[in-house]
Amino acid sequence: MSKPMTIDIGISPSERESIAQGLAKLLADSYTLYLKTHNYHWNVTGPMFNTLHLMFEQQYTELAAAVDEIAERIRALGHPAPGSYAAYAALTEIPEEEGVPDAEEMIRRLVAGQETVARTARSIFPLVDEAHDEPTADLLTQRMQVHEKNAWMLRSLLNG
Predict the structure, then answer these.
(1) Which of 7, 6, 21 is nearest to 136 (CA)?
(2) Where are the domains of the chain?
(3) Any idea where the Ferritin/DPS domain is (predicted)?
(4) Which residues 6+ apart lie within 8 Å of 35 measured at CB?
(5) Cβ of 79: how many Cβ atoms within 10 Å?
(6) What's the CA gap between 80 and 59, in Å, rounded?
(7) Which of 33, 42, 54, 78 has its CA 20 to 30 A from that of 152?
(8) How far, in Å, CA of 154 to CA of 107, rounded?
(9) pLDDT, tens digit, for every residue of 98-110?
(10) Chain mean position to CA 14
(11) According to CATH, what is the number of the domain 30-158?
């Protein structure tokens, strides 16, 4: 078996490792939020059923694509992407769902989850800026835009 090729993309090995560790947390938060949102899509009831069922589907579908992008960026930096429930549970800041809350509580928990992912993405920026890692900066900016908008849209359902 041949030796792996050295990665020479202008980011040091230690910087790539630190960024990949941050992205692993982002991946874990995103995947956990995906599972929670998909769960709520299946189990939401009440007068806002149709609105929430469709909104949750849009959000979990977007998250499914996002986890792939995040994992691929980790791989491009030369590190393995975490891919198990145990790894995600150890890395995420989003609590695992237990039971089936009512629709309003689902919304509140998803707002908290969306904001958590946005904070995690934002927390990686100092490492990315220092390493001049523009592709990861672009990914993080896109993720923050999506999660901040989703949090606003969900919050608006409660503040109406």
Answers:
(1) 21
(2) 30-158
(3) 22-159
(4) 97
(5) 17
(6) 26
(7) 42
(8) 6
(9) 889 999 999 999 9
(10) 23
(11) 1.20.1260.10
Please give the share of the chain, as a percent, with pLDDT higher than 70.
99
Q: At 138, give phi and psi (nearest 5°).
A: -65, -45
Q: Cβ distance 33 to 88 under 8 Å?
A: no
Q: What angle do CA 109, 113, 119 make, to 5 degrees?
A: 145
- Model pLDDT, residue 159: 78
d(CA 143, CA 63): 10
Range list of β-strands (E), 6-142: none
Computed over its alpha carbons, how large is the radius of gyration of the chain?
17
Q: 143: closest CA among 27, 20, 56, 55?
A: 27
Q: Report the phi/psi class of residue 13: left, alpha or beta, with left for phi > 0 and alpha for psi in -120 to 50.
A: alpha
Q: How many residues does this entry show for the chain?
A: 160
Give the pLDDT confidence of 97-147 residue by residue, as tens digits: 888 999 999 999 999 999 999 999 999 999 999 999 999 999 999 999 999
